[in-house]
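ARCHIVE ENTRY
Sequence with per-residue C-alpha cells
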Amino acid sequence: MEVIQFDIEDITLLDEFINIQDKYFTSETYIPTPKENLFAVLNKRNPFFNTAKSRFFILKQNEKFVARVLATIDSRRNDEEDATVGNLGYFESPDNMNIARPLLDSAVSWLRDSGAKSIQGPMDLHIYNNYRFMTEGFETSPFLSEPRNPKYYPTIFENYGFKELTYWRSWQIDKAELLKFHNFVASMLKRRKNIHGIEMSPIDIDNIEHALSELYETALDVFKQNFSYSEISREEFVAIFSKLKPFLAPKSFQIARNNRGEIVGFIYGLIDPFKPGRYIYHTFGVVKELRFSDITARLTIAQTENFADIYDESIAALTTSQKSIIERIKKPNRFYKMYELK
C-alpha cells in the first residue's frame, strides 16, 4: 500500500485521481458526476490554483488506485479567527479505515506543515463548488447540486477524529403543502408596509452574464455572511453562476432593489432535470442590513407565486442550521454536515 502525492501539473496521476469518481456508491441513489466536469475544474487554468496551496493524494493498493483526497488552503478565504484553515475535498475511499486512515494522515500532515491550524471537509476547493456530506436522506431522490456520498463517508471522518462543525437541511414539499405555505407568507406580507420600497424583477436569462456582473458586488456582500466564505473575482463569479442558465425558467432568478434602485437581495430556483415535475428553491441572499427585515418573505413570494401551483413537488434546498420559516410546513427529510479537525 502506498500513498502518492502530486501537484496539478501531473496529468497522468490527475487522470487516475479523476477516474476514482463515484467508485463506491452501492445502494445509495446519486447523480453521476461527468468526468469532463472534473477535468474542467481540476486544471491549471482554474484561477483557484493561481493563489491556493494544493496537493493531491491518491492511494495505491495491489497496483490499483483505490482512494483519493485533495488538500487545499485557500488564501482568499476569510476566517473570523484569522487562522489558516485547510480543506479536504474530492474524498473517495472504500469502507476501510486501513485505507482511509493513511490517506488522510498524509493529507492532514501536509496541511499542518503548510500552516493549517484547523482542517475542514469535505470541501471541493470552495463553497462555490461541492461541499458537505449527506448524513440523512439517502433513500430520497437526489436533486441538482445536492451533496451525495456513500453512507459511510461521515463515519470515516468521525472515526478519524473529525467533529461536526455545522449542518444544513433540505425539505421535500408537495404542491398542497407549498400552496399553504405561500398563502401564509402572502397573508403576512399584506399586514406589512413595504418600508424599503422593495421591487422584484427577473433577470434576462438570455443575457445572464450581464445580470450576474451587475449582481456581483451585492452577491459577495451576501456571501460574506455565509460559512467558509472566500472572495472570487467578477469573472469567476460570472463563469460559475452562468452555468445555471440551462436550468432556469422565466422569473426563476429574481433581483430585489430598494427605493434607491440598489440591489439588496436575490433569489433563484432551478428546474430539476433529474426528476420531471420538481422545482428546487435553491438560493437566496439579502444584504446584511436588511437580513432581519421582511425582504426574505418578499423574495420567497417572488418564487412561490410563479411556481407553487405548477410543480407537483418542490425542494427547499440546503438551508443552514438557523431557524427557518420552512419549518412551519414540515420537518426536513435530508441532512448534511461539515466536519472539522482541530
Q: What stands out?
A: The chain has two domains: 2-131, 172-334.
